[in-house]
Amino acid sequence: MHKISRRLFLVFALAASALAQAQLSIEITGAGASRIPVAIADFLGDATASRIVTATVRSDLERSGLFKLVDTTGAALDENTSINHADWRGKGADALAAGSIGRSPDGRMEARFRLYDTQKAVSLGGAAYVTSNEMLRAAGHRIADYIYEKLTGEKGVFSTRIAYVVKARGQFLLQIADADGQGAATALTSTEPIISPVWSPDGSKLAYVSFEKKKPVIYVHSIASGQRHIVANFKGSNSAPAWSPDGRRLAVVLSKDGNSQIYAVNADGSGLQRLTQSAGIDTEPRYAPDGSSIFFTSDRGGSPQIYQVAANGGEARRVSFEGSYNVSPRPSPDGKMLAFITRREGRFQLAAMDLATRQVQVLTDSHKDESPSFAPNSRMILIATEVGGRGVLSAVSSDGRIKQRLSVAAGDVREPAWGPFYQ
Amino acid sequence: MNKLLIPALLSALILGCSSTPVPDENGAPVESRTGGSGSGVAPVVAGGVDANGLPRELTDPKSKLAQRSIYFDLDKYDVKDEYKDLVAAHAKYLVDHRGFKVLLQGNTDERGSREYNLSLGQKRADAVKRSLVLLGAKEDQVESVSLGEEKPKNAGHDESAWAENRRADILYKGADGRGEF
Predict the structure, then answer these.
(1) Which of A151, A242, B35, B82 could bridge to A251 as Cys pair (CB 3.0-4.6 Å)?
(2) Sheet harboring A403-408: ordered strands across?
(3) Where are the domains of chain A?
(4) C-alpha torsion sign, points A72, A75, A80, A81
(5) Which chain B residues contact residue A209 at CB under 8 A?
């Protein structure tokens, strides 16, 4: 216990110095076929604060690939201004948002806005978010989420966070950033590899595999406090943690009984139960969103393929059939799709299977895709891939049309994990 | 506690080393217990210990036991014939030194899923472990783990780099708990 807290102190001291060089930058490399034209008027009120909020809302919506921004130059509107809908229709906007930033009675900032459907000439509603000065971008994300949900009918993911591992100058940094790559903070620094981070369903913890003991050991790490504990450190390798949807258990892969097999364990490390029994490799478990079954990778049939087994074990059913290498299964949070990595002609590419029809679509044309992770709204998939010999993250829409690239200036980025909805 | 134990363990180590035939080419003598080579007295060379507290015969480049890597073919995890002698030498050391432990670290090349590679590396380490145990090492002297593709020996991205990275490494720890892991 003492040892851990001392090490953590060092980690945080190191983290501060590593922060500056490890900011993610995002580049949009593909957009949706039809984008909703939306006008976001400059927020009125405190000029500096307004610039931050307006820019955040605009870049969130644009980055999603589902919206086209309509120029609002010259418009001075806030949430109370009456809107000339015909005017905005004339400028090509289907929707308009207008708002302002003011001081709330307790001295913090308050961002207020209203959203309009210019086609129907009606208000779609509005909201106010109170925030500290440092959190203005968070308010922008909340506003973008509101607009996204009103206009597309599904929840936005702009207020979510992502975790990933940066390898730079011989160090491994487990970082957490906003979904747009901003505000990166280092949760763990190590000279040994860190892989397979996964978010607890409530977003408060990460489980991951760290090699700091010269072997793979599974930890659960509380993000806010930095406290962490070992979940599995059995003889042999301990890896591939996956949270059950209720956050109480983890599926893990242990080699303690002679071969990589899947077990379930309580989040505190108690209550170990073996789930698979095979002579081959069983690994990469992921719970289906309803918690009833687990998808995993196994070479029991001679080549690595994806299988599905009941959450408390039993007979496994093969899920992938095309090709000789299908790994890293990730069911979408809505339960409709399965993302995985397939090898085609020596290239490792992201693919998605429609779980109802079993149709498979390859979503990328890259050659070294790894570690897919769904956004909580199931619309985008974050992967690690390689561009110009460097590890970068790429977000791909589940239909393969929209693509964004996230990279760090001086290092490899890998092992992405998209966090749950803002709570 | 540790301070009290060290002299006892050191002498145990020295006794341990001298009780097995030490190859002639096995490193420079660090200490000569006879203090000279008078006629009719066979000089005894105590192996001494390296920076990790391990006997030099495990780390001296001239010793066979300093060879710690076993290489594998693509997608394979059987120990090739050319490494049988090396594995046998390490097994013998473990048989002769029951207080010693080894950690076997399996590795893979960078292609494919990190977690799947971790399991593949585990199979390689397990294969070496099976050989060691078959040759007399005790189960509790040997732990096999995997580093997957995470610790490449060669950071390159071509076949020669990949071949170097498909590997199991042997790390030693002495009875006093000091060593390489």
Answers:
(1) A242
(2) A24-30, A403-408, A390-397, A380-387, A370-374
(3) 35-152, 160-418
(4) negative
(5) 118
Q: Could A370 and B113 be called an inter-chain contact, meaning their C-beta atoms sit closer than 8 Å?
A: yes
Q: Look at the block and give the residue holding tokens 């993302």.
A: A339
Name the helix (H) or strand (E) containing A165.
strand A161-168
Sequence spans of domains, chain B: 1-49, 67-181
The shortest CB-CB distance from B115 to any of A236, A259, A284 is to A284
Quick one: which H or E segment has residue A138? Answer: helix A136-152
Q: Give the fold, CATH level 3, of B67-181.
A: 60s Ribosomal Protein L30; Chain: A; (3.30.1330)
Q: pLDDT digits over A49-102, tens only?
A: 999 999 999 999 998 989 999 999 988 999 999 999 999 999 999 999 999 999
* Distance spanning both ends of chain B, measured CA to CA: 21
Q: What share of chain A is helix, strand, coil (3-state, %, to 5)?
A: 15, 45, 40
CATH superfamily, with its number, for domain A160-418: TolB, C-terminal domain (2.120.10.30)
Crossing angle of helices A136-152 and A47-63, in 10° steps, is 40
Segment A343-372, tens digit of pLDDT: 999 999 999 999 999 999 999 999 999 999
What is the CATH code of the structural domain delimited by A35-152? 3.40.50.10070
At B46, phi and psi to the nearest 5? -85, 130
Element (H, E) at A130: strand A122-131
